[in-house]
Design a protein that fits this description.
homodimer, alpha/beta, Helicase, Ruva Protein, domain 3, Dna Topoisomerase Vi A Subunit, Chain: A, domain 2, two-stranded antiparallel sheet, elongated
Chain lengths: 198, 198
């Protein structure tokens, strides 16, 4: 017997979630059929209301419930340093480390020639515009330390340096081949103190 | 900065999915905010229509689009052998192996004293009723080979034997500590041929 068609349709949708393989998708599908109506309603409503409430901050492109986001509208932050991350999750991971009190910029991805993701597919133009218009003195490259993140950092260093802005990269403590959003807070704190010029 | 409240609410719901930890739940939450309206609609509709269409078969308690399910209503199957599994996913895994042509019974879980799951929490009474009323000559215990599944098999063997029904357990080829739904078809085929009496 094959899987019922209705399960198949859910599996197809869930397999597209990041990090979810076909077996996990099957498990989650059966789970979503078996749980109470109350629980499934709560889940579906959380998706619908999050999608209605969340927006991209027009300054940093963080996903937030307000625009500008709470970080960009915080007057106590150092507006001369910009930390450049791949995703909103990375922004939260860096901000939790509490070592950093500047502003952020979310690229929305990383360069990946193999997946045909080039500079036009992430927010490089908007980043350059931001760096030009605001008086940023230092750009911290906090992209992942896997090959996509490193490629992106190299590329960004290349295009930011001509603007006479100091470019640094999170350094000390980050394990190679890793993903920033999974790093613990101490590791991120150390990486911020130990950042080095590129 | 902490996670926005709306993301928090999704993470809470998604963390309850089987096999999903908090970090994965966060990733999926952001994914569900970022994907197109079309894609999220397709996902939500697949849940709603699956929940409306799927029911438990009143004979074997498989999750199916019809009652009785296609297996229970298949006249070509050997109605004297009953294969007892923990979940609908396990049933599909066993049926794909094609070595087995009898009927099934889905327990809906496994005994787990540590989680306070006792015989009253899975379908043991309905299983005994089924074995008594139908003329079953052999019960194949196809519960997982982890400690819960083994405990369940031992318990079931104990309560089925007094009914003068031959009790066998999937044997050959199953790795220890494993989960039946992840086994490949050849391993399951061998386990069915090599089953041994308990």
């Amino acid at each position: 017997m094959n899987r019922p068609q209705h399960i198949e349709r859910m599996v197809e949708a869930i397999k597209r979630f990041p990090g979810i393989g076909p077996k996990m998708a099957e498990r989650i599908s059966y789970h979503l059929v078996k749980i109470s109506q109350n629980e499934v309603d709560r889940f579906i409503n959380s998706i619908i209301s999050a999608r209605a409430a969340m927006r991209y901050c027009s300054k940093c492109f963080n996903l937030s419930e307000s625009d500008p986001c709470p970080i960009c509208s915080d007057d106590l932050r150092d507006k001369t340093i910009l930390c450049i991350v791949e995703t909103p999750q990375d922004l939260i991971a860096v901000s939790k480390a509490k070592e950093y009190n500047g502003l952020y910029f979310v690229l929305g991805g990383a360069l990946s020639p193999l997946d045909a993701v080039g500079p036009g597919d992430i927010r490089t133009d908007l980043l350059i515009k931001r760096l030009r218009e605001d008086s940023i003195s230092e750009a911290i490259l906090a992209t992942d330390t896997d090959s996509k993140g490193e490629t992106t950092a190299l590329y960004l260093a290349e295009i930011i340096k001509p603007l006479k802005i100091k470019v640094t990269r999170l350094g000390y403590g980050l394990p190679a081949g890793g993903d920033i959003e999974y790093a613990d807070e101490i590791t991120i704190s150390r990486a911020i103190s130990g950042r080095k010029e590129m």
